[in-house]
Amino acid sequence: MPKSNFKIYMLICTLNKNLNSSLHIYKNIDELEHFKYVWCKKNVFRRYLQSIFILLKRTYVYFDFRRNGFTNNEIEVILYVNSENTYNSLKFLKSEKTLFFMQISSLKKFRNEKHLVNNVRVPLWITMISVFNFPFFVLKYWKKALKYPELYFENFGKDYSNERILLKFKSLKKVVFANDHNVHNRLFKIACENRNIKTAYLQHASVTSMFPKLDFDQNFLFGKIDQHKYESISTIKGETLLIGSPKFDELYKHKRKPKKRNSFFRIGLATNIIDNKTKIESLVNEILEKTNYHIKIRQHPRESRIFNFDSERVRIQSAKDSSLLNFFSDIDFLLAGESSIHLESLYVHIPSFYVNLTINERKDYYEFLKYNLIKELNSQYISNEYFLKLSIEPISLKTLKLFIHSVNEPFDGHVDKFVIANLC
Questions:
Q1: Phi and psi torsions of 315, nearest 5°
Q2: What value does the CA radius of gyration of the chain take, rounded to a whole number of Å?
Q3: How many Å apart are CA 166 and CA 227, to the nearest integer?
Q4: What CA–CA distance (Å, rounded) separates 89 from 413?
C-alpha cells in the first residue's frame, strides 16, 4: 500500500481511469443482449446483492493463503483465457514454456491442465477503498455503474493485482489474448503494458464496431471486414496479420462438395440464450407443418430452458455435449441468429441463413447481411420448394474470404502453424 495520501489518491485515479477504459463495450450493455444476459442479474436489487457478495468473496480470497501465487522462471508466454472458447482458440500454442492464466472459476474442468493459474488476490485495502470510491466513479466516469454496480465492484483494482502477479514471471516475454473486449482481459492487458510486456491478440469470434480500439503489439484477425471495423473505431496500433483462424483448421478436411438437388433436407437450428422461446417454437412448428424435413437443434451451452416438440423429426442437443463437426455432419442447412457459427457453416460449404429469434429488431452486428454473405430466411415462404431453391444458390467464396482470409490461401487448413511462425 502506498505510504502517502497523495500516492493513494493518484493510484485511485489511475485505477478509475483503467477500469473506465476496460468497461468500453459494457457502456453499450443495454443494446447488447448477450452481454446483459451473461454478466448481469435481471433487476437492480439483485445486482446490488451480487455486489455485496463480490465484496465478501474478495475478502475471503484475500485471506485464502492457498492462493499465495505461482512462480516459474521458465515461463515465456502467458495464454490468457476467460472462457472455454478462448481456451480452445489458444490451446494449439501450449508448450513447456507457456502458461494458461484464468481469472474465473467457471473453467473448472481445465484446472488439472499443466501450467494453469486461477489466482487473483486483490489487496484488502483496495477492496475497502472501492466502496468509498464508487460514488466518485459513477459521477465522473460512468453513470450507468449505478445501475450495474457488480461490473464495478468485480473489477476495481484488478489491474494493480495483475501487475503484482506479472512480477513473479522473470522470463515472461509475451501475453496472448483471444478476447479483446472483456473487462478482465482489458485490465490484464493494461498491466502488461505497465510492465513493458508485449501483447498479442488472436481473434476467436466475429467482432462488432462497438468493440474497443485495437491496440495490441500484434493482431491476428479473421479477415478484411474485421480489419475495416477496427479501423472505423480508431487507428490500429501494432502489426496486423489477416489469417482466418486456427479454429477453422479442424473443419478444413470436412469441406463438402456441391450436392445435386434433393427432395429431402436436414435443417440445423443453432439457438442462443437470448433467443425468445416462443419464436423458436413457432419457427420449428412452422417448418414441421410446411415441410417434410428433419430438424436438429443445437442449444447454447448455457441454455437451461426445456423445449418439447411432439415430433420424431426434431432432435435437440447441447453444444457442451456434442462437437460442432458432429452437428454439421447431420445437417444440410443452417439457421441461426447473430452468431459466428454462420462463418463455420459456410466454410465447410453448408448453406447458412439468418433468422431473428429475439424480440427485438435484427441488428446485424457482424455485418453478414450487409455484405450478402448470408440471406435472411423469409418464414412466409417456408416450404419444400423454398428450401430447394435456396440449396442451389452458390456460396460466394470471394465474399467469404473477406471474413475468413485463409480461404484459398496456401496456409488454409494450417493457420495454427502460420500463427506460430509469425508470433514474435
A1: -125, 140
A2: 23
A3: 30
A4: 14
The grid cell for 11 is 493510484
Beta strands per DSSP E along 178-265: 198-202, 218-221, 239-242
Contact 327, 345 (CB under 8 A): no
C-alpha span between 252 and 419 (Å, rounded) = 16
Of 256, 127, 122, 245, which is closest to residue 191 (Cα–Cα)?
122
Please provide residue 314's backbone torsions phi and psi, each rounded to the nearest 5 degrees: -115, 130
CA–CA separation, 405 and 374 (whole Å): 17
| Pick from 25-39, 107-121, 264-278: least confident | 107-121
What cell numbers appear for 115 in the block?
501450467
In a 3-state reduction of DSSP, which class is residue 227?
A: helix
Per-residue burial over 52-71, b if 16 or more Cβ lie within 10 Å, else e, is eebbeebeebbeeeeeeebe
Number of residues assigned to the chain: 424
CB-based contact 137:129 (threshold 8 Å) = no
In this structure, are residues 366 and 206 in contact, taking their beta carbons and an 8 Å threshold?
yes
pLDDT in tens, 249-297: 999 999 987 665 565 689 999 999 889 999 999 999 999 999 999 999 9
Distance from C-alpha of 275 to C-alpha of 287, rounded to nearest angstrom: 18
**Measured distance CA(82)–CA(103) in Å, rounded:** 7
Residues paired with 316 in a beta bridge: 297
pTM, rounded to two decimals = 0.91
141-156 pLDDT tens trace? 999 899 999 999 999 9
C-alpha torsion sign, points 20, 25, 26, 28: positive
Cα three-residue angle 29-178-76, rounded to 5 degrees? 135
- Is the CB of residue 147 less than 8 Å from the CB of residue 44? yes
Burial class (CB in 10 A: 0-12, 13-18, 19+), 358: middle
Residues with Cβ within 8 Å of residue 132, at least 6 apart in sequence: none
Backbone φ/ψ region at 109: left (φ over 0), alpha (ψ -120 to 50), beta? alpha
3-class SS of residue 419 = helix
Q: Report the phi/psi class of residue 26: left, alpha or beta, with left for phi > 0 and alpha for psi in -120 to 50.
A: alpha
Q: Which domains, and CATH codes, for the chain?
A: 1-69+119-156 (no CATH), 259-393 (3.40.50.2000)
Q: Look up residue 204 and give its three cell numbers.
A: 476467436
State how far the Cα of 354 lies from the Cα of 283, in Å rounded to an integer. 12
